[in-house]
Design a protein that fits this description.
The chain is mainly beta. The chain contains 2 helices and 22 strands. The chain has a 12-stranded antiparallel barrel. It has a 4-stranded antiparallel sheet with strand order 15-20-17-16, with no helix packed on it. Strands 19-18-21-22 form a 4-stranded antiparallel sheet, with no helix packed on it. The longest helix has 16 residues.
Length: 361
């Protein structure tokens, strides 16, 4: 009887750890409500990851280090300048980034309904030496990156064309197009562990894309993976080449992971003009393994908050975006770092402040 009970408990435990999930429109909608912020981080150094096995498996990405970070904010369509180019969209995302060291605004336009999550296009706008530069990327039809309900064993294929138009001061400068054929397969499910130790049930979506560039008369093929959860978190990466296996350790071109934003912003409108440029001491300090860093900016600006070790090597990029005046808090998780002294550096409008932090293990 005891042996039977033990076997039953092991079976139940295994079922919970490797249970299959189904992703629906409701799950995706929750992650993209207006005002929601998606923090996207990239480990640009790592070039080999274990992508798990086909079917029931697990993934551990707790060792990733954020070398760059930016934030996608879900905004009202009518608050964006290019919504008229993508009339079928019902979701718009905005991010402030650095493009070749120049601040730029990026807008993404998406269609979400009961059956698809489709990327209709991306617009990147910047200015340099008094001239405006806009790159308009349009998918026709929209690229269906998720077909819902999404569950293990699901698959679909799509043909679509991507057109790139570059404008300088509102005048078209160059145009090119790429014909794409994408095959998608949900080929694995299991437990996903993220940096910081959070664990969620997830699905692995494999994309095999073949592209023909009309302007250069050239073909390309890429294989990429998206491991996503019902809670709005995901990990994505592209295989270094098409010869990489579909299980175990493979070579990649870096890893990106994202999820609901960890930055909490508090603003007092009555005090808006009284903010100063200030980087406060983290709390707690010393800390293990996480701490909160608080900072203020007195005017809208492009802000960077980075962490360095004692030899000046960057160990984390916490903020890289344009922010409004206000008081900001961000949680710094140093779970993957060794004990020692670290420095947080805040930069905005050519001004820099630094604090010293002590990590205990």
């Amino acid at each position: 009887m005891k042996k039977t009970l033990l076997i039953l408990m092991i079976f139940i435990s295994s079922s919970l750890i490797y249970s299959q999930i189904t992703l629906t429109k409701t799950d995706v909608t929750n992650a993209y409500d207006v005002g929601s912020v998606l923090a996207m981080r990239s480990d640009t150094v790592i070039n080999q990851v274990n992508i798990g096995q086909l079917g029931s498996t697990s993934w551990d990405f707790s060792n990733l280090i954020a070398h760059s970070t930016f934030y996608d904010t879900s905004v009202a369509l009518n608050a964006t300048p290019y919504a008229n180019l993508f009339p079928s969209s019902n979701i718009a995302l905005h991010a402030g980034i650095l493009k070749d060291t120049i601040p730029a605004n990026v807008y993404q336009y998406i269609t979400l309904n009961d059956t698809i999550f489709a990327l209709n296009g991306i617009v990147t706008a910047t200015s340099l030496l008094g001239s405006s530069f806009v790159v308009k990327t349009t998918n026709s039809p929209g690229q269906v990156t998720i077909q819902m309900p999404l569950t293990f064993g699901g698959n679909w294929s799509q043909n679509y064309t991507t057109t790139y138009v570059t404008e300088i001061n509102g005048i078209p400068f160059s145009t090119s197009s790429v014909a794409n054929t994408s095959d998608y397969q949900v080929d694995a499910y299991g437990s996903l562990t993220l940096p910081g130790g959070q664990t969620f049930q997830a699905l692995r979506l494999k994309q095999d894309e073949k592209s023909y560039d009309n302007s250069s008369n050239s073909y390309d093929r890429t294989i990429s993976y998206l491991i996503l959860t019902k809670e709005g978190f995901y990990v994505s990466f592209t295989a270094a080449d098409t010869l990489q296996p579909n299980n175990g350790s493979i070579l990649t071109t870096g890893v990106t992971w994202a999820g609901p934003n960890v930055v909490g912003v508090t603003r007092d409108d009555n005090k808006l003009n009284n903010y100063s440029f200030k980087l406060s001491q983290n709390y707690p300090n010393p800390f293990n393994p996480s701490t909160v860093i608080n900072f203020e900016i007195d005017k809208e600006s492009y802000v960077e908050l980075k962490v360095f070790n004692v030899i000046g090597k960057e160990t984390a990029s916490l903020v890289q975006e344009r922010l409004a005046p206000g008081n900001y808090n961000i949680n710094f998780d140093a779970n993957n770092l060794t004990a020692g002294i670290y420095f947080a550096r805040l930069t905005a409008n050519g001004i820099t402040q630094t604090i010293k932090m002590t990590l205990l293990k």
